[in-house]
């Protein structure tokens, strides 16, 4: 007999601040709201090896709001491992209950500009799951290469982006790595833009990508530096794969290679990382 689904708790309104913190507001019946041990539990979904983590946030009454309103704060200084975190209500003597999503105020996340003095970048975006529960998508990165405008044209992709936590040197390169196989990466120049050498432009031709289906894009800020994954996470969209779509372009590989006709298109992965997909046309 299948287990009964866990009882769902009330809806929680979420407000994000520009530093990366979140507050959760919810309303409970007066009897439940009196418990001193009431709190929110954030539980990360298991990773590939089954490991998980938990973060407990105390709930306190909001004096200026209607009776029964409680608030929990997730400060920007609390680090959340990259992944998806389910949000539960915990009351004394009761099993944890999943919360439903309420109203999200994520205006501060739009075009967010992280402080360069930080030693790490934490991004958290609350969202509603397909089952109608509240979860938080979290990223932890530094340095970070934020993808900006993408321009798709015949034969390739033009990418504009901004690097946080490092500068773009004259030797900077955009690298496309095949997700499977042992082929060498396709490497192109990444030209620095602006006085602070934070922004970059690169043109990635499609023909050299025809031999593999999936390519992940990385920025190497300088020769000998570690490569940084190119992604788009500094906004209020937790899952970009179905929201940001780009046209496929026909690719004309080297005829001497004997490869079939293919198309190529950029896309965002489930982690909002930028990648290229190559498909056969027949």
Characterize the structure shown:
It comes from Streptomyces oryzae. With 282 residues, the protein is mostly beta strands. Helix content is 1%, strand content 46%. It folds into 2 domains: 11-139, Immunoglobulin-like; 144-280, Immunoglobulin-like (Sandwich). Strands 12-13-16-15-14-17-18 form a 7-stranded mixed barrel. A hairpin with a 6-residue loop joins β7 and β8 (97-98). The longest helix has 4 residues, at 30-33. The chain is elongated, with a radius of gyration of 22 Å.
Tally of contiguous helical segments:
1
**Assigned CATH class of the largest domain:** Mainly Beta
Structural class: mainly beta
Succession of helices and strands: EEHEEEEEEEEEEEEEEEEEEE
**Terminal CA distance:** 47 Å
Region (Disordered): 35-55
Protein name: Transferase
Organism: Streptomyces oryzae
